[in-house]
Amino acid sequence: MEEKFEQLVVKNEISDEEIKSLIYTIRGKQVMLDSDVAMLYHYETKKINQAVKRNIERFPEDFCFQLTAKEYTNLRSQIETLKTEKLNEGTERGKHRKYLPYVFTEQGIAMLSGLLKNEIAVKVSINIMNAFVEMRKFLLSNTQIFNRLTNVEYKLLEHDKKFDMIFNKLQQEENIKQRIFFDGQIYDAYSLIIDIIKKANNKLLIIDNYVDDSILKMLTKKKSNVEVVILTSNNSNIQKIDIQKFNKEYPVLKVAKTNKFHDRFIVIDNKEMYHLGASIKDLGKKCFGINKIEDTEIIEKIINLKTHNE
After folding, report:
1. Cα–Cα distances in Å, from 183 out to 38, 61, 286?
2. Between the CA atoms of 206, 207, 212 and 214, what dihedral angle is there, to the nearest 10 degrees?
3. Which CATH class is domain 177-309?
4. Phi, psi (deg, nearest 5) at residue 21
5. Exposed, middle or buried by CB within 10 Å (0-12, 13-18, 19+), for 133?
6. How far apart are CA 6 and CA 189, in angstroms?
7. CA gap 83, 97 in Å, rounded
């Protein structure tokens, strides 16, 4: 059955270059929006889509498909970055759509033109086919340039990431080296201890006479292969059952009792040590400081005291 269309009266002509600007790349295919196709053929968009639905067997997905919401949003943002152009009198492209649009590939437009029995359709179809061919030639001839630009952008992104990592690490090192916390800065103090715990790659020694089960919550942030030793006093409030449960999920944690220490220390991988002015369970409750100790002889003496205790 031959399709009959009501042709719109449109005075404006559109150039070949303007037709090229209506071609987009979606799902790896060069396509044209149904509204733009309708405008070029001087028909209403809904009439074009109705014709496709009535002849759906002629329009497989390689010829015509409906955009997803995400694809349409991305396309809209791409269009809106360009200068808004009124292609038809009183009509702006892509705005105020009730339904997600369909797009036509080159084959789909060729199939559609066969349904339109008028001189405009024949003339416009030739122009559209030429535009697709020119766009394809342009993309093929500039593939190497596009690839180079992509590689340059990728390298710049990688450099930016590395710079951010180094900057953040330096900033973190400076923050950990010496900090003072005032009454109420519980979260800030807690976050800094977590950062220290995360630095350990092999071993973590915590010396604190008054630890409780709150330290276990912090230690869940450690790296999976890190062995933890806690030296504490009989005044600590950490139960054997808590240690056993912790080791089932975050091994290995050892707790030993000693009376050799007064102050609090955290030693990382036997080479980096922090002195805490308050017990870990009291972080942020009163004014206290955290200092990084860089004297290797002091670190060795602390480790030796710990070793003699085992």
Report:
1. 69, 65, 4
2. -30
3. alpha beta
4. -70, -10
5. exposed
6. 73
7. 19
Pairing of strands 29-33, 23-26: antiparallel
* Helical segments of the chain, H only: 16-20, 34-41, 45-54, 69-80, 106-115, 119-141, 143-177, 186-199, 214-219, 240-249, 296-309
Classified as helix, coil or strand, 64 is strand
Residue-by-residue DSSP string for 197-231: HHH-SSEEEEE-TT-BTHHHHHHTTS-TT-EEEEE
Peptide bond into 252 cis (omega under 30): yes
Give the model's confidence band at 1: pLDDT under 50 very low, under 70 low, under 90 confident, else very high: very low
pLDDT in tens, 40-95: 888 889 888 998 899 999 999 989 999 999 999 888 877 775 544 443 433 445 55
Residue 190 corresponds to which tokens in the numbers above? Answer: 């807690």
> Facing residues of 267 across strands?
205, 273
What letter would DSSP give residue 144?
A: H
Please give the model's pTM, rounded to 2 decimal places: 0.45
Q: What is the dihedral of CA 12, 16, 17, 18, to 10 degrees?
A: 30
Q: Which of 151-155, 183-187, 202-206, 300-304 has the lowest mean pLDDT?
A: 151-155
CA 279-235-189 angle, to 5 degrees, is 15
Average pLDDT, the chain: 78
Domain residue ranges of the chain, discontinuous segments joined by +: 16-141, 177-309
Sheet with 102-104: strands ordered across: 23-26, 29-33, 102-104, 64-66
- Mean pLDDT of the region 226-250: 91
Strands 203-207 and 227-232: parallel
| 124-183 tens-digit pLDDT | 777 787 777 776 666 666 665 555 655 655 566 565 666 566 555 544 555 567 788 888
Q: Quote the tokens at residue 113.
A: 């033109």
